[in-house]
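Running this now, will post back.
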Amino acid sequence: MKVWTLEEVGGVLEDRSFTHGLGVFETMLAVDGRLVAPELHFERLQAGCLRLGMAPPDESKILDSIDPVLSSLAAPRAKVRLMRTGGRGRIDDLDGDQPLTVLAVEAIALPPESVGVITSPWPRNEGSPLAGVKCSSYAENLVALDHVRKAGADELIFPNTRGNVSEAATANVFAVMDGTVVTPSLDCGCLPGTARRRVIDLATSLGLKVEEQSLPIAEAREADELFLTSATRGVVWVSDWDGRGFADRRVTERLRQAFDESLKGE
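Update: finished.
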């Protein structure tokens, strides 16, 4: 894995990304040396920077830096992690200086065909000031994923404080209910995933009815199909949730094929 910064590194231990987790990041997929939907990632990165009072990085410099690395990697699929740090500054003032742009690129395998999920014992706070921000402070998700591993599952689904589906630890959640593709609305506390947005558009183009709404956990468990979406994995069918299996995957498979096909045209 190659890791580098676009700026001269100095005083790293004073950077608030390292001292307090103040920063934002993006995880992008590259297929055959090409970034997938970089404009959506930069749009979200910029929104996150603005929410946290940080200056966004220069997109053109990032792309110019990434392209030769992807070419030299020569991998069918790669993961590109982009982090913008909070820089140096006061603990009680979001405004800072000397932020860093950190990049990491590594080859990755094909995504799994299916995953088993469990319900998180901890809720997502949809009212948090960090709701919807892909924040560098990721310890909550790491604790959740450690819980998943110990439970012998692949992922978990967070309820929010109202008992509705929010998101998975590393993905957005979709349910298929009576032919309608349903996903939690952004006010449920979920991340505005780039793959989520692409799948909503793909489903609409396929003539499927799509609804963004509150989705109670109890109703989601009884869905006909369930699937997760993320930038690096695309569409992944959920085979079981807390031991309850999902036999149907017809809509999920249509969307998975459409998503995978769209990668060829990037």
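The mean pLDDT is 95. More later if anyone needs it.
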